[in-house]
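Take a look at the protein record below and tell me what you see:
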Amino acid sequence: MSAPAEAERSAKGLGTGRVGLLGAVVIGVSTIAPAYALTGTLGPTASAVGEQMPAIFLVGFVPMLLVAFGYRALNSAMPDSGTTFTWSSRAFGPWIGWMGGWGLLAATVLVLSNLAGIAVDFLYLMLAQVTGDESVADLAANVPVNIATCLVFMALACWVAYRGLETTKAVQYVLVGFQLVVLVWFCVAAFARVAGGDAPGGLALSAGWFDPLAVDSFSAFAAGVSLSVFVYWGWDVVLTMNEETQGSRTTPGRAALATIGVIVVLYLTVAVAVLSYTGTGEDGLGLGGGDQENVFAVLAGPVMGPAAVLLSLSVLASSAASLQSTFLSPARTMLAMGHYGALPREYARVTPRFQSPGYATVAAGVIASAFYVVMRILSEDVLWDTITALGMMVCFYYGVTALACVWYFRGTWGGRPRHFLSTGLAPGLGGVLLLVFFVQTSVDSMDPSYGSGSQVGGVGLVFLLGVGVLALGGVVMAVQRVRRPAFFRGETLAVGRSTTDGTDGTGGPDGPGSAGAPVGGAPGPRPEPTREGVPE
């Protein structure tokens, strides 16, 4: 296939050069949503691992960093908005690639519903604080009111995402800046109360908090890591924007590493501040009791006093910001799947005015809204259950993507230690760790007592959400195989591997002259497959 023909085939119609490094980092942080993620996971994480919560956040950071190296290498070789779907299909073939894409879609749909739910809770909490009427906060527990408000949030976020990256970027600069300032304020206030002896826990900083070996059991450790993986999750959105980013082969990878670095420092600071202030007991404000779904809702008043409304507004802003920016990942993944024939062609539609995946964005909003309505009716503890299931889903598709990096670059390591570290050892170790955590949490979550305790037919709801949704993906894949056989025969996205020897100047993941020649989704001549399906 000629270079012009390949460029035409891989081009999806998305706007190019819309986001730079700073903008990508801001959108990455907004998708992670630190204020939202922390308020929803500090309680469940402390419940699983106790005072070793900071250690678990550190442990969760390690596989994220290792996997990020794999993402950076794959993006340098073949920048494509399909990310996990496209890269896994290139490395392992259409079946694993399709399931990897489904894992990403399932996780983002789950989190969209959860983000909207958190936004609803904090909207009414903020209104109660502003009006002085505590009964207003109870409106969040009213199911019809909750669902209606959630659908309004979902529609607004979908509308902003539909308008493309330039509108998204402008919104995120304001919302991300505000939540970071308030979180730092909260930490300073908490440390000040501990130092002044005005804290219910009043714990002194202990080195044991950072010792992961002090966790009681491997099951508790795996559950904690699964949750900590969730609080880091979202940085890969900067890779899904690669076709729309300035320097598509290098900027997204740098933005991913920078985003993770900012977040780990912030998380450790907040975890230590909360642990020092309140402890992990089950009485009073302890993390082992109270409202574990919304820790900041409980601690805002005691820690920040009259300024507590700012923390509520910060979580609301964080949830709204992430709700909007999270639309980017499923929309662009579905765009790629439609583009390569793995989903109906309608998903590949791009709006001419905004150059964004309009059809896929609306589809993601509709699916997430329907899922939230069902979950809110089915489970009284929908937020906790979806957060726990999310950790499982993230471990699955991150792990698949990391191993895809190893397999894709497997023939390029000879005599190149740095390249082996960044494309083999680091992503391989990270991928294996995450898949181990996925399996362990899947087994444990079958117990109805896992998570909130909700169950269906004696099986834990967390298991049904996590593993059940993946199984549903297998069914949908089988249907697509019948309807769209070309993709599953490798005709639209062929299996391949990097064969660059590091001397031809193709400019791969380690810079000019390294492995990672443009393949498939990147403009340039398409390597023709041999009988084994591997480009010569």
